[in-house]
Amino acid sequence: MTIKNSTLLVVAALVITACGSDDTRTPATTNSIVADVVYHSGKIWTVNTAQPTAEAVAIRDGRIVFVGSDDAVRIHIGSDTEVHDLQGRLMLPGFQDAHIHPIGAGVEAALCDLNGLESVALYRDRIAAYATANPDVPWITGGGWSMAAFGPGALASKTIIDELVADRPVYLSSQDGHSGWANSKALEIAGITKDTPDPPDGIIDRDPETGEPIGSLQEGAMSLVTRHIPPTTGQQREAGLAYARDLLHSYGITSMQVAYAYEDDLQTFAALDRAGQLDMRVVAALWWERDGTEEQIPGLIALRDKYTEGNLRATSVKIMQDGVMENYTAVMLEPYLVPGGTRGIPMVEPEFLKTAVTLLDEEGFQVHFHAIGDGAIRQALDAVAAAKAANGELGNRHHISHLQVIHPADIPRFAELDVVANFQPLWAYNDSYVTDLTVPFIGDERASWMYPIAAVAEAGGRLAFGSDWSVSTANPMPQIETAVTRVDTATHDTKPLNPDQAVTVEQAIAAFTIGSAWVNGQDDTTGSIEVGKLADLIVLDRDLLAINPQDISDARVLLTLFGGRVVFGDPETL
Fold first, then answer.
1. How big is the CA angle at 108 (ends 104 and 112), to the nearest 5 degrees?
2. C-beta of residue 62 within 8 angstroms of C-beta of residue 94
3. What does the DSSP assignment read for 391-413?
4. What pLDDT, on a 0 to 100 scale, did the predictor assign at position 299?
5. Which of 11-15, 171-175, 262-266 has the lowest mean pLDDT?
6. What one-character DSSP code corresponds to residue 112?
7. Beta partners for 371?
């Protein structure tokens, strides 16, 4: 019998001895399932309303065979069972990120990475250092810059980069991926001049006096440059995904929905999975070409058929319906408070959106909407309503991500239409994106509708959480803290953003586990700690349910199990 960090078997032996010398039972009785591994003496929050808490779990062949007390788990301990003492620590189901960009984020980390830097001066330093360290790279790419560093409209200037790199093209995407920053060489290669028209789904920012492009590109205008950038190699993508996998395991994430994926992304996931190295349950949202027609659906079906195997399921379709508030491309029901009174850019014509979603729903696809403004959110809900009216209830679990401003009249519709509200909770506080780049341009009334997580839940809507990494950290801890406190997790000194929309710790954990498992179509096998489910489990260094909510972001994952196998941490050091 293998005993690790445990006195449980000693106690079991004493109990057996007390029954009399004629009792020949071993800890595992002949009619019990002998576990491969047992974790005991913990605070196990199961996210299962029928059995919310437990002390011990037993695992065999990657699945949970017992959830209950330390006393009752003894019958599952055999001569080869590994036994680990949780030392009173909190065990949860593995987290599931319902909206994330793992390959792109992993690749970006190896390029000119501006994530985490907060000023133009720091961007200058990083760009110059990268250019010096990589003299043979034909294109300098990467990203992660904050739109707030350039003020309203995120007007990033080409001259800043030109002073640092004039002989090579440079293109850097913003932290949220909705704006690009190019130097003059990149604009020249792309053929972008003052005479180049704005694409229907984007904006070329221009000097108001000369009309010359200034270097920043919004939404669809980014593709004017990105189509000229050499494609990322398969080796780069696999290395980026491996980096992402290891980072996500350290955060306790065992399943995810990729926010959008092209075939080369699917090939990367499939390659790691075939090699037994993915160690992650992945749902990939296939990219909907927003200027395309329903003729693209057969191609999406072919991708789903080809790449839905093993730990990968290509069963969702991503439709980006609008942009973001900060550059006034998120679709609003009423105009922005800016000259010209724009209402944003609907990326898919709303009536055709109904047709597209109806056809995708009929084919059994889940639709994963990007919708930030109240107008785009209504358009997405209307499209789902049209699909259900045409097709009936097919159970495809459509969801809308981001949901920055929801009109109060639309909040009950999430429950009515069974559309999952996929929030990125880390954004629900008064940072500079909110206070400087959003509220002044939408006004106080609409600002009071921002990130109404509690209201959707109170109206009976389903919640799921995702990070949108690398837009923001993939670590669920600060995301949970923000959902509960609605303040900056680093300083705790910001005014709470719509504090009536805060949720409880229990609700936040559920959104990151069973809620996201529902979106991912895995709620029957993951998302809670129940007998028969896969042993995707995590152990934390502190009890999120007992500590001050402002300390949640300091919590760390000590152990991550994927199908009962350790993929992060060491159970012997708990």
1. 155
2. no
3. H-------EEEE--B--GGGHHH
4. 98
5. 11-15
6. E
7. 402
